[in-house]
Amino acid sequence: MFTTILCGLFGAKVTKPGKLRSRQDGYAVKSSLEAEDGILYPLEKNFFFLPKPPTLILHEEIDYVEFEWHAGGGSNMHYFDLLFRLKSEQEHLFRNIQRNEYHNLYEFISSKGLKITNLGDAQPTVGIKKVLENDDDDAVDPHLKHIKMKLAEMKVTRR
Fold first, then answer.
1. 3-class secondary structure, 40
2. pLDDT, tens only, 97-106
3. Domain containing residue 70
4. pLDDT at 97
5. Considering the domain boundaries, does residue 73 fall inside one?
6. Residue 2 placed within a domain
7. Window from 61-75, 121-135, 138-152 with minimum mean pLDDT
8. Beta bridge partners of 146
9. Rounded to 5 degrees, what are φ and ψ at 61?
10. For residue 45, how many other CB atoms are within 10 A of its CB?
11. Is there a domain that residue 12 lies in?
12. For 71-89, b where at least 16 C-beta lie within 10 A, e where not — what string?
């Protein structure tokens, strides 16, 4: 109602949040771009990062998306990075997204028909494999069981 009034009075276009809901029931996820911490908003037709540098990535400009899991160990295994490769060959790497946001982001990106490149690899990267084999965090991430089942299904369908 409020947005309808704004549009009518000022002729301004109002961008509504996307269908993604974060684990904290918000419309965005915390991440870093370059050296700046901020918030990544997955919207219906684009991704928007605030505060610095404000970055708008249109879905139609995205060539592919890649989820990058942190290899190694310790607290790094609780985070992943999200790489957007644009058709112009420019890349945007959003770092240090909490692992429990993976399922919601994956579902959102898949629902938009965006290409996800590293899910179909024959051999998961060491970081992904290590994260999926680590049972210590099952209580932290309720979607981990679902992710493990999907990975097992992918292996079965390839045979």
1. strand
2. 988 888 889 9
3. 17-158
4. 92
5. yes
6. no
7. 121-135
8. none
9. -90, -5
10. 10
11. no
12. eeeeeebbbbbbbbbeeee
pLDDT of res. 33: 92
- Helical axes 126-133 vs 144-158, angle rounded to 10°: 120
State the total domains in the chain. Answer: 1
Tell me, yes or no, if the pTM score tops 0.85. no
Helix H or strand E segment including 68: strand 62-69
Q: What is residue 2's DSSP assignment?
A: H
For residue 134, what is the domain's CATH number?
2.30.29.30
Distance separating alpha carbons of residues 129 and 123, to the nearest angstrom: 9
Residue 105 belongs to some domain of the structure: yes
Cβ neighbourhood burial of 126 (10 Å; 0-12, 13-18, 19+): exposed
β-partners of residue 94 are 33, 82
Q: What was the pLDDT predicted at 156?
A: 60
Taking only the tens place, the pLDDT of each residue in 52-94 is: 889 999 999 999 999 988 665 555 578 899 999 999 999 999 9
Q: Tens of pLDDT along 7-34?
A: 566 565 555 555 555 555 567 899 999 8
- CA end-to-end distance (rounded Å), the chain: 53
Instruction: Report how far apart, in Å, the C-alpha atoms of 9 and of each of 2, 12, 14 are.
Output: 11, 8, 12
5: Cα separation from own chain's centroid = 32
| Residue 103 CA to its chain's centroid (Å) | 8
